[in-house]
Specification:
- The strands form two sheets. This protein has a three-stranded antiparallel beta sheet, with helices on one face.
- The chain starts with a strand and ends in a 17-residue tail after the last helix.
- It is extended.
- 16% of the residues lie in helices and 28% in strands.
- Strand 4 and strand 5 form a beta hairpin.
- With 87 residues, the protein is an alpha+beta fold.
Length: 87
């Protein structure tokens, strides 16, 4: 992640990673941003062919989104060591 110090720019940070899957039919985009509290903000943009407005629509959207995002974001246990003393 990059933090910009130039206050003349219309933004203060360049952050995140965007993944795209492009097919002849559509484009799916997953964007992952690291928030200040070290949590992740994940945004998914994907066409949902065959989904019609109904009572079950939100369940279908959440299930498909979770399946797609699960390919990009998952829990791992990483132990970080402070190596500043090694310098």
């Amino acid at each position: 992640m990059i933090t910009i110090q130039n206050s003349n720019l219309p933004f203060t940070e360049i952050s995140g990673v965007r993944f795209r899957k492009v097919t002849e039919e559509d484009v799916t985009t997953v964007t992952i941003d690291l928030m200040r509290d070290r949590s992740l903000l994940v945004t998914l943009v994907s066409p949902l062919p065959g989904v019609t407005i109904s009572v079950d629509m939100m369940d279908h959207v959440v299930q498909q989104s979770a399946r797609i995002i699960g390919d990009f974001v998952f829990d791992i246990d990483i132990q970080f060591e402070d190596r500043r003393d090694d310098l």
